[in-house]
């Protein structure tokens, strides 16, 4: 049971990445591109439609709404293109990730946040 759940989660992650690729490919029909872009942005966003701390409903968007929206977007994309996007997403998952690269991105975000706070913070002497 746990193995099936892990496989399902990997497939969802791969398909979200595939939809992100589809959203940027001009060969994808425009309606599918728009839906795929929205789904990928929502799935990759740290902000949820329904916050996870709300009992039962908190997981509704990830467990039900997101897979249903993904299914619709996948059906709007021609099968040969979707197979190509899934292959690209699977190849990207197989590549090793860089912790140093992730640390550099986090450092840049922290630096930008610090500069923004410094710029917006009222001057204590003023």
From TrEMBL:
How is this protein positioned relative to the membrane?
A: Multi-pass membrane protein
Domain DUF1232: residue ranges? 32-68
| InterPro entries membership | DUF1232
Q: Does the keyword Transmembrane helix apply?
A: yes
Indicate where this protein resides in the cell: Endomembrane system
Pfam families annotated for this entry?
DUF1232 (PF06803)
Q: Where are the transmembrane segments?
A: 30-47, 53-77, 98-121
The entry's keywords = Membrane, Transmembrane, Transmembrane helix
Q: State the name under which the record lists this protein.
A: DUF1232 domain-containing protein
What is the organism field in this record?
A: Paracraurococcus ruber
**Highest classification ranks of the organism:** Bacteria, Pseudomonadati, Pseudomonadota, Alphaproteobacteria, Acetobacterales
């Amino acid at each position: 049971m746990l193995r099936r759940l892990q496989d399902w989660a990997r497939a969802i992650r791969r398909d979200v990445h595939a939809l992100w690729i589809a959203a940027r490919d001009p060969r994808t029909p425009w309606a599918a591109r728009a839906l795929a872009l929205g789904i990928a942005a929502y799935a990759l966003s740290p902000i949820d439609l329904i916050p996870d701390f709300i009992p039962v409903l908190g997981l509704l968007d990830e467990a039900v709404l997101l897979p249903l929206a993904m299914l619709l977007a996948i059906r709007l994309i021609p099968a040969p293109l979707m197979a190509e996007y899934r292959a690209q997403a699977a190849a990207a998952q197989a590549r090793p990730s860089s912790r140093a690269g992730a640390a550099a991105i986090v450092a840049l975000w922290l630096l930008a946040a610090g500069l923004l706070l410094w710029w917006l913070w009222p001057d204590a002497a003023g």
